[in-house]
Amino acid sequence: MLPVKTRIAAWWMVLVSVPMLVLFGRALLTQIKDMFFNCSCLCAEGAICSCICPLDYYFVAASNIISVATIALLFMLSWRLLRGRKWAWYGAVIACILIGIGSILPIWSSLWPDVFDSLDAVYLLVVAMAFFIPAVLLFMDRKDFFKVSA
Question: Which of 17, 120, 141, 146 could cysteine-pair with 116, CB 3.0–4.6 Å?
């Protein structure tokens, strides 16, 4: 039987990662649609048309791909953590910390200061806390978890 804090953290990660996958996946699909269908196309008479997207589209799409992949990995790791796998504990802690740091970084980014308003900053802090709390719970219960899973 797993320790209580580990079970709470694992179920928390499962329940938080499903809506995050939906939100980030929807944002990724919207971004890909915008990249292919809403770019300005430059065509000369009799020439082949080429569409040019701003570089921001590619950076945001890449960050959404990384977010979706990491959250999907966290979802799978949390299911393995419920079965008492040590490697899943390490992976879940690393994934939670990476997602939390990755969601805080845009707040301090000086690349696009006019992109984020205060509501976006609050949203990103809530996302970060939703992934830092399971990491803290896992760290608090690590000795009991490794006794049980050994």
Answer: 120
